[in-house]
């Protein structure tokens, strides 16, 4: 948030933010008079970036990740994958309850129930495997960067 004419305003409403390079953000204010306020807000935000102002735009060089930060990001990836697995288990539980209900109401046969149950498990396994592959790829990418 930027204090723009004594009004807290989101940065993306005051400027165009672009990334011309992977390790650089450029903030181009719509109103050049707001440049100093934007710079002050970036410094105050405690995001760990040091703005460089040339009078028209603000450049924000993004420093390389430390080994500790890479570890934190990899841990976050693992945590998100675990949350995804929990969501898949909840979906499976709900679908199995629906299938049991259908069987109880004689909408499907017992054979259909077991076929659907097996098919459901195959789907859950396939998506769990995809999540693991994506997780491994992302963790490698984080640790290499």
Could you please describe the fold and organization of this structure?
This protein is of the alpha+beta class and 145 residues long. The chain is elongated, with a radius of gyration of 25 Å. The chain is built from 3 helices and 6 strands, in the order E-E-E-E-H-E-E-H-H. A hairpin with a 2-residue loop joins strand 1 (2-4) and strand 2. The strands form 2 sheets. A 4-stranded antiparallel beta sheet has the order 3-4-6-5, covered by helices on one side. Strands 1-2 form a two-stranded antiparallel ribbon. Helix 2 (67-104) packs antiparallel against helix 3 (110-144). The chain starts with a strand and ends with a helix. The protein folds into 2 domains: 2-61, Gyrase A, domain 2 (2-Layer Sandwich), CATH 3.30.1360; 67-144, Ribosome-recycling factor (Topoisomerase I, Chain A, domain 4, Orthogonal Bundle).
Essential attributes:
alpha+beta, Gyrase A, domain 2, Topoisomerase I, Chain A, domain 4, 2 domains, 6 strands
In which range does the helix fraction lie?
Answer: 55-70%
Rg result: 25 Å
CATH architecture of the largest domain: Orthogonal Bundle
Number of domains: 2
Strand percentage, roughly? 15-25%
Distance between the ends: 30 Å
Kindly report the name of the CATH homologous superfamily of the largest domain: Ribosome-recycling factor
Quick one: how many beta strands?
A: 6
Silhouette: elongated
């Amino acid at each position: 948030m930027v204090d723009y004419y004594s009004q807290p305003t989101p940065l993306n409403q005051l400027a165009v933010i672009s990334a011309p390079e992977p390790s650089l953000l450029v903030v181009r204010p719509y109103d050049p008079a707001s440049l100093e306020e934007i710079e002050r807000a970036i410094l105050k935000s405690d995001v760990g970036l040091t703005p460089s102002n040339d009078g028209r735009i603000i450049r924000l060089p993004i420093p390389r990740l430390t080994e500790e930060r890479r570890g934190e990001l990899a841990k976050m990836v693992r945590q998100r994958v675990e949350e995804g697995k929990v969501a898949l288990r909840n979906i499976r539980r709900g679908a199995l309850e629906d299938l049991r209900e259908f069987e109880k109401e004689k909408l499907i046969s017992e054979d259909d129930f077991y076929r659907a149950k097996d098919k459901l498990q195959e789907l859950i396994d396939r998506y769990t495997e995809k999540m693991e592959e994506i997780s491994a790829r992302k963790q490698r990418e984080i640790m290499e960067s």
